[in-house]
């Protein structure tokens, strides 16, 4: 379980460029949850997630992960970072090794594992992100953008974190690459029931498709938290924050306004198509 | 680690010093630095110190910030002062090491050490003052203008200025990038701090490779962007913002020249 209490963070405190990035944020995430963080650009999402594996120390407040206070001065940072894997935005920019294998093995190697164990983990991680084993000995710089992204994600997965955090994992990918990565996240979550996955996204469609719960950031504050349905219900407020609801939700809301009798809590195209199919059937029977 | 470096940063403002012409500021800073190395009496140093304090006050910059800029210099300052303290001979011997008689502090050594520290600190303060109050663009424009006359002897003034502009422009970008890569590799268990020199040098690879790749990518992008906007060097280029000298520059120049004469006289 992740428990954040009264977290505040100020960049460059005491300098002329001082900037309050987070103010008084509290929330809890139970084990095995699938959480989306949304918010307008500059709202503090990236700053928030970097706190969760102690890359940034809070200016104020407390963060507990599985009962361990990771803001304590004597905390074992390596253990924290092993348990909480963080995939940065554009993670392919941090690839550096000669081969894909070595790059994915970087994390496990730093953990001091045996060669056999490392090999096993690398292969597992590649399997999870859908990379074929032919690529093992290739240079990561020869791969396509989508493949590079997967190598980078595998580099974090190979550490077998209990919590996986991804900052805009699909930014800059084409629709196919995007869908593949999202589907792999869903599979990953299904196969590892206790793994908590947190991801930052600007796409309301992705949020509706993947997440159970949503945290909404606005100007450094936690504006809303709750289930996908709870959050998308408050579409007017979301719009005020420069956010939106999924397009399909927008469509159904307009249909409702035009007098069609359908439920308002439709967030995915898949669900909408079922509802619309029923509606059509009814119409034919009349 | 890069955040402590204040040289090269610019803080907006509209103080007397902010409003001065970049060319004049650069020239006066140069004169100031020369003076700093010409004077040697304690009285002169006291006066220069006062003059510098006055300039800092005039710039309306937070003093805390200026002092912070000296921090990265701390080791150099300590190193040079120790070196000067023990290596300069002359005058009365103030202290002799009980175990190593050849190691001693002389009056002259103490004097030189103090003056050296003052000299270096003031040097850093004034150069910081120049860059903190002049936008990088104005600064390089100023340098270009000042170098113009040397084009007769084939000094590529515009190219030098352009390279400096680009270099300065990319300092924050690259330091941001460095910070990000350090964080990303730290998240994968990389350790940049412990171990002996060899181990630490090796630990830099996961940082340096991505950093170089991104620097080259940025250089490439920039070259394409400049090309596609028809950039073709300095010939016949005009400026959107013309530099103008005002009464401020006159006053500043007169004050500094008078101060120099006075300082060199004592
Ligand atoms: N290294 C830094 N130094 C100073 N200020 C920063 C730094 N990183 C972020 N900030 C500031 O903190 C605030 C929050 O930034 P953050 O990167 O967390 O936003 P974000 O929600 O991730 O935005 P985006 O959607 O654009 O990625 C912004 O106002 C930003 O300018
Ligand atoms: Mg971000």
Offer a concise description of the structure.
Chain A is of the alpha/beta class and 286 residues long.
Walkthrough of the structure:
The complex is a heterodimer of chains A (286) and B (266). With 286 residues, chain A is α/β, with parallel strands linked by helices. Chain A has two domains: 2-245, Rossmann fold (3-Layer(aba) Sandwich); 246-286, no CATH class. Chain A is 41% helix and 22% strand. Chain A contains eleven helices and ten strands. In chain A, strands 6-7-8-3-9-10 form a six-stranded mixed beta sheet, sandwiched between helices. In chain A, strands 2-1-4-5 form a four-stranded antiparallel beta sheet, with helices on one face. In chain A, helix 3 (100-110) packs across helix 4 and helix 4 crosses helix 5 (145-157). The longest helix of chain A is centred in the middle third of the chain and has 17 residues, at 175-191. Chain A is globular, with a radius of gyration of 21 Å. In chain A, 40% of the residues are buried. The model of chain A has no long low-confidence stretch (mean pLDDT 92). Chain B is an all-alpha fold. In chain B, strands 1-2 form a two-stranded antiparallel ribbon. Chain B has helices spanning 16-19, 22-38, 42-59, 63-70, 74-87, 107-133, 136-147, 157-187, 197-203, 205-228, 247-265, and strands at 93-96, 104-106. Chain B has a domain at 1-134 and 250-266. Helices cover 68% and strands 3% of the residues of chain B. The two termini of chain B are 42 Å apart. Chains A and B meet through helix 2 and helix 3 of A and helix 4, helix 8 and helix 10 of B. Adenosine-5'-triphosphate (ATP) binds next to strand 2 and helix 1 of chain A.
């Amino acid at each position: 379980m992740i428990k954040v209490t009264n977290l505040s963070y100020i960049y460059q405190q005491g300098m002329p460029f001082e900037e309050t990035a987070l103010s008084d944020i509290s929330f809890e995430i139970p084990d095995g949850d699938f959480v989306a963080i949304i918010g307008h650009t500059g709202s503090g999402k990236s700053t928030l997630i970097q706190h969760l594996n102690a890359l940034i120390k809070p200016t104020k407040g407390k963060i507990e992960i599985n009962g361990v206070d990771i803001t304590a001065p004597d905390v074992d940072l390596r253990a924290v970072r092993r348990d909480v894997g963080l995939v940065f935005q554009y993670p392919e920019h941090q690839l550096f090794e000669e081969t894909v294998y070595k790059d994915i093995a970087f994390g496990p190697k730093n953990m001091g594992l045996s060669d056999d164990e490392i090999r096993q983990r690398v292969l597992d991680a590649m399997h999870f992100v859908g990379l074929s084993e032919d690529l093992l000995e290739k240079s990561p710089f020869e791969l396509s953008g989508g493949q590079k992204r997967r190598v980078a994600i595998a580099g974090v997965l190979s550490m077998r974190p209990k919590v996986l955090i991804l900052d805009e994992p699909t930014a800059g990918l084409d629709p196919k690459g995007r869908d593949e990565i999202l589907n792999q996240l869903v599979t990953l979550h299904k196969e590892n029931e206790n793994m908590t996955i947190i991801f930052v996204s600007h796409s309301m469609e992705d949020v509706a498709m993947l997440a159970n719960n949503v945290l909404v950031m606005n100007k450094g504050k936690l504006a809303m938290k709750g289930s996908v349905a709870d959050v998308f219900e408050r579409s007017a407020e979301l719009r005020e924050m420069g956010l939106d609801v999924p397009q399909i939700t927008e469509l159904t809301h307009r249909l409702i306004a035009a007098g069609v009798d359908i439920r308002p809590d439709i967030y995915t195209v898949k669900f909408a198509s079922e509802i619309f199919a029923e509606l059509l059937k009814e119409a034919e029977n009349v | 680690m890069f955040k402590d470096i204040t040289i090269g940063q610019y803080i907006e403002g509209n103080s007397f010093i902010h409003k001065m012409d970049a060319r004049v500021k650069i020239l006066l800073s140069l004169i100031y630095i020369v003076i700093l190395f010409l004077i040697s009496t304690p009285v002169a140093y006291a006066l220069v110190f006062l003059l510098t304090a006055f300039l800092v006050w005039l710039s309306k910059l937070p003093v805390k910030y200026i002092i912070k800029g000296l921090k990265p210099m701390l080791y150099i300052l300590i190193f040079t002062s120790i070196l000067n303290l023990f290596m300069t001979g002359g005058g009365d011997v103030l202290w002799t090491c009980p175990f190593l008689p050849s190691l001693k502090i002389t009056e002259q050594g103490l004097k030189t050490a103090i003056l050296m520290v003052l000299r270096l600190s003031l040097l850093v303060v004034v150069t910081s003052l120049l860059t903190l109050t002049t936008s990088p663009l104005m600064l390089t424009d100023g340098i270009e203008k000042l170098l113009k006359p040397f084009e007769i002897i084939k000094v590529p003034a515009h190219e030098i200025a352009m390279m400096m502009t680009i270099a300065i422009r990319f300092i924050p970008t690259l330091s941001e990038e460095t910070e990000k890569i350090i964080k990303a590799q730290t998240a994968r268990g990389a350790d940049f701090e412990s171990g002996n020199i060899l181990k630490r040098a090796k630990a830099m690879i996961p940082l340096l490779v991505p950093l170089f790749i991104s620097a080259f990518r940025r250089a490439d992008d920039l070259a394409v962007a400049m090309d596609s906007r028809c950039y073709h060097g300095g010939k016949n280029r005009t400026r959107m913002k013309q530099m103008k000298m005002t009464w401020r520059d006159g006053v500043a120049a007169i004050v500094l020249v008078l101060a120099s004469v006075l300082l060199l006289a004592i």
